[in-house]
Amino acid sequence: MQISLKWVNELVTIERTDLEYLIEKLTFGGFEVEEILQVEINNQKTISLDISATANRSDTLSIQGISTEIAALLNTPSKISKYSIKNLNWKEQIDSLCSFVANQNDYSRFLAITVENVTNFTIPEWLKQKLIYSGITPVNNLLDFQNYLLLETGYPFEFYDLDKIYSKLKTSKFNLIITNQKNDEEFFANNNLKYNLNSSILTVRANELPLSIAGIISNKDFCYSNTTKSLLIEASIFNSTKIRQQSRMLGLRTDRSARYEKSIKDSNLVESLYRLISLLKISNPNLTCKLHTVSQTFKQNLHPISLRYKTINEILGPVKESSNNGLTSITTDTITNYLDRLNFTYTFNNSKLIWKVDIPYLRSEDITREIDLIEEIGRLHGFNNFLTRLPKIKTIGIEDYSYQTRKRITSCLLNLGFTELIHYSLVNQTTFLNNSIPLINSLLNDCSNLRSSLLPNLLKTIQENLKQGNSSIEGFEYGHIFSGSSLPEFQEKEYIAGIFGSLKIKRTWSEAPKSLTWFEGKGKMEQFFKQLNILIYWKIYSSSKYSQLLHPYCTAELYLQNQTNLGVFGQIHPILAKKLNVSPELYLFEFDFEQIKNQIQTNKLSIYQEYSFYPKIVKDLSFIIHQNISFEEIREILYSNGTKFLVQINLLDEYRGNSIPENHTSLCLQLIFQSNEKTLQNKEVESTINNLQLLLTKKFNATIRL
C-alpha cells in the first residue's frame, strides 16, 4: 500500500519526525517499508512510502488506519477530522433504523442508499492529488470517489445506476436481498466476462434481479456511466471466508474482494458512507439521498482478556535500561501508557498486577489471547529495546532408551556404509503396495495416502538418483507406517528400513567389480545384528504383503529367540526392477524398531568369556553341494560333529560357474579350531576334517574339492 506522508500528516503530526526514525518505528512495529517514493505534482515533491502490513491487520489498510498506528508508535495524538464530528447524528439515525438478522454468517452489515441529482462527476483538485500521491491515476468519474474512499477509510463501496434498475424492474419500489442462487444462472459482469453461478454463490438482488456477485463484481447491465443521474450505493461487510471461496470458485479476484478477504470490520462503515456523500455534494449541491436498506447481524460479546505483569516479564524479559545493580523489567506505568495509546479500555488491579483489557471490535481478529496483548506491548516498546539472553540450562536433557537405541542402530548402519534418508509419511495411490490408507481431505494426489511401508519411498529415491545421472546409494530410514482398514483397527508403528547392494565393488585385485550376491547381503544383515548383540533366526518368507516388491524366492523373514517376527529381508522383485530401470541386485530390509529396542534392552547386560591362551588352527573346507541345501543345515551338521574344539565356521566363498554342475554351488568354509585346555595337534584337526568330509559326502552327496 502506497501512502503519502503529506496525507498522513493531516491526521497525525509527523512534520518534524525524522524519516529514518519513522521508518524504523514502522519496521519494528510490524510494517515493512518496501520503498521510499518521491512524487512530484505542480513542481512540488512529496514523499510516499510503500508499506506492507501483516495479513491479520486489516485495520491498517487505509490512511486512517495506518495514521492511527503511527500515532500509537510515535506517542503522538491523532487529529480528529471535521466530518467525523458532523456525522454523529447521522450514525445514530441509521443505527436506530437497523434491522438485525439472526443466523447469518455471510455478512455482518449491509447498507444501501439512493442518491439522486448527480450531475457533475468532477473531482476536486486536492482529491486528485491525493490519488496521485497514492499511485492511482485519476479518471475524473465516480471511480475516483470509490478509490479515494478505499484509500482513506479502507471500505470498498459498490455503485449501481439506479435508473437502470428502475427500468429493468419497471417500478421504483424494490427490496434488496442477499441470497444464494438456487438454480444455475449466467451472470454478465462489468469486466465483460460471463460467469455461471451455482447455489453456493452469494448474490445481491433487487427483488429477483441480480445486481452483483456479493463482494466481488457488479452486473454489467447496472454499471454507472457518464450519463448516470442517480445511484444506488451499497456499503456492506461480507464474510472473508465466503468471499475467498467464491473468488476461488469463479477464478475471479477484484480490488473489492481482495479487501474483504482481509476480514475488515464495520466499526467506521457509517462514517465512511457519510464521507462519500459529503464528497459527492461538493460538485452536486442539489444532491439528495435516502436510506434504502439497513441490516446487520448480531455481534458476539467480546470477553476481556487478562494481562498479567508476571507473564509480560517472563515473555519479554528485562529492558536494556537495566542498571548495574541488576536487571530491570518494564514498569506497570509504561504498560498502562501503551494500552492508552492503543485505545484499549481496561481496569487495573494494583495488588495482583493484572489488567482486564477490553479489545475494540476493530482489533478482535488479531488480538484474542494474552500473548497477543504482550506482543502489542513489545511492538510499542520496541523488541530491540529488550535484552537478548540465552537461557541458562544446567542439563541439556535425558536421552530416553528409544533415543539411545536409535543412536546405536544409526552408528552400526553408518559403519556398514549406509546413509540416513528421510521421506514424507504421505504417499500417492500408485505405490508398490496396495494396502496404504487413503486420506479423506488430501491436498495433493502425491500425498493422498498414509504409507504402509518405508520401502517404496526408498526405491523411488534410488530411481530418481539414477535418472539424474547419480550413482546408486545405500541408505536407511526411520519412520512410522500405518495399517488397518477401519478407524478402530488403525495402527501406527515405527520401523527401520534400508536398501543396498547395487554398488559394484572388487573382491580381489584380479577380478572385475561385482554386485553383492544374496548370501553376501544376508551376511551383511547378520553382521548388523551381531553388532547389536541380537541373535536372529531366518525363515522362508510366507506372507503376501511384499509380493509385488520382493523376489518370491530370495526373501526371508527374521525372528528373535522368542519367535517374535522382527521383519523381512529380500532381493527386489525382478519385474519391479525392470519396470523402475534399477539394478536387480538391490536388497531391502524392514524391521520393527520397537522389537529391536526391546531386545537390546533385554540383552543390555553383556556376558563375557575368558580368552583362550592356546593358539587357533584354521582350516579351509571346499566342496560342491546341491543349491537346495541351506547353509544353516550344513553349519548345524558341522558344529554337531566337529568336536568341542570347532569354535567358529565362516563362509569364505560361494561360486557358480561353467566348472560347477547345474543346480549346484561350490562353497568354501573356514573352520576355526581352538581349545581352552591344551595346544591342539594338526593330526587331531586333520582327523576331524576327514570325518566332516565323509559326513558331507554321505549326508548331502557333496563332492569334496581339493
UniProtKB/TrEMBL annotation:
GO cellular component terms attached to this protein's record: chloroplast; phenylalanine-tRNA ligase complex
Domain of life: Eukaryota
Alphabetical keyword list: Aminoacyl-tRNA synthetase, ATP-binding, Chloroplast, Ligase, Magnesium, Metal-binding, Nucleotide-binding, Plastid, Protein biosynthesis
Gene3D superfamilies in the record: 3.30.56.10, Bira Bifunctional Protein, Domain 2, Ferrodoxin-fold anticodon-binding domain, Phenylalanyl-trna Synthetase, Chain B, domain 3
Residues in FDX-ACB domain copies: 612-705
Cofactor binding mode and count: Binds 2 magnesium ions per tetramer.
Catalytic activity: tRNA(Phe) + L-phenylalanine + ATP = L-phenylalanyl-tRNA(Phe) + AMP + diphosphate + H(+)
ATP-binding in keyword set: yes
Compartment(s): Plastid, Chloroplast
Cofactor(s), names only, from the UniProt record: Mg(2+)
Enzyme Commission number(s): 6.1.1.20
Subunit structure comment from the entry: Tetramer of two alpha and two beta subunits.
Homology family: Belongs to the phenylalanyl-tRNA synthetase beta subunit family. Type 1 subfamily.
HAMAP family according to UniProt: Phe_tRNA_synth_beta1 (MF_00283)
PANTHER family attached to this UniProt entry: PHENYLALANINE--TRNA LIGASE BETA SUBUNIT, PHENYLALANYL-TRNA SYNTHETASE BETA CHAIN AND LEUCINE-RICH REPEAT-CONTAINING PROTEIN 47
Protein name, UniProt field: Phenylalanine--tRNA ligase beta subunit, chloroplastic
Source organism (scientific name): Eunotia naegelii
Lineage of the organism: Eukaryota, Sar, Stramenopiles, Ochrophyta, Bacillariophyta
Gene encoding the protein: syfB
